[in-house]
Amino acid sequence: MFLTESNYYSQQANWEYLSVSQYKDFIGTLGKPGCEARAMAKLRGEWEDETTTAMLVGSYVDAHFEGTLDWFRAKHPEFFKKNSELKAAYQKAEEVIQRIERDEFFMLCMSGEKQVILTAELFGAKWKGKLDSYHNRKSPYNSIVDLKVVKDLHERFWIKDLGQFVSFIEYWGYDLQGAIYQLLEQAVYGGEKVPFSIAAADKQKTIDIEVIGLKQRDMDNALLGIEGNVKRIIDLKAGKVEPVRCGKCDYCKFTKKLTAPISTDMLIEV
User: Hey, is 137 helix, strand or coil?
Assistant: First the structure.
């Protein structure tokens, strides 16, 4: 299947290709555990994760820089009042756009080729990726840049198992995203891995912005164990093994079937 803008997010494409977001659905990140049962239900079209206001604000900003804002506005009339003004809940999106566009370096980073679709075989599976801003190998700023809109650029997340705080980059698995995008770009164009950066803006009262260059060591480390995980996902999609339910996500709660009483101890298990 040849991927285009019109079929990139189709169910057929999702069955044939693995993406970073789909991988996270199965395996999870520090910030959101994966669930095989939920991931397979999404593939079968039986479940959709909730789309929050925060996610829609980010999508609005993405659409602006992709050049698809008119299409996005038409698809989401709930953003607007009867007089066509943005509702208060979504006005932050325009504020973020205006703040970004005041910064020359941020705009330089976002000035690469938009929404570049790449596919390649990695770790025994076909992968797809879509680059927000790609500065090709002939560019003096040769790099991959991904746009993110987050709650707070400087928020720290405590990870008990690691015994340390991590940034939003590690918490949401953006180091893994960078690593996969590097490999896709390298597989298509050859040569050395190109730098990967996150161009980020937050939604605080006074909006902060940064372009964050991810360390190669961190991205390489994010790939540890991925080969075994990918084999498991391939087997799940092929129906060779049954998906495991996490028991804690919205999908598992919604589809849970009781068979016997539980003990009070189970109510406080982490």
Answer: coil
Contact 151, 202 (CB under 8 A): yes
Q: Which amino acid, residue 74?
A: A
- Provide the greatest CA pair distance for the chain: 64
Q: Which domains does the chain have, with CATH numbers?
A: 11-50+103-268 (3.90.320.10)
Indicate the pTM of the whole model: 0.94
Cβ atoms of residues 96 and 203 within 8 Å: yes
User: Tens digits of per-residue pLDDT, 153-187?
Assistant: 999 999 999 999 999 999 999 999 999 999 999 99
The pLDDT tens digits of the residues spanning 215-246 come to 999 999 999 999 999 999 999 999 999 999 99
DSSP state of 245: P
CB 113 within 8 A of CB 130: no
* Residue 164 backbone dihedrals phi, psi, to 5 degrees: -160, 165
The whole-angstrom separation of Cα 83 and Cα 116 is 36
Nearest Cα neighbor of 179 from 148, 145, 220 is 220
The per-residue b/e assignment along 183-204, b for 16 or more CB within 10 angstroms, e otherwise, is: bbbbeeeeeebbbbbbbbbbbe
Task: Provide the token pair at 61.
Answer: 């900003």
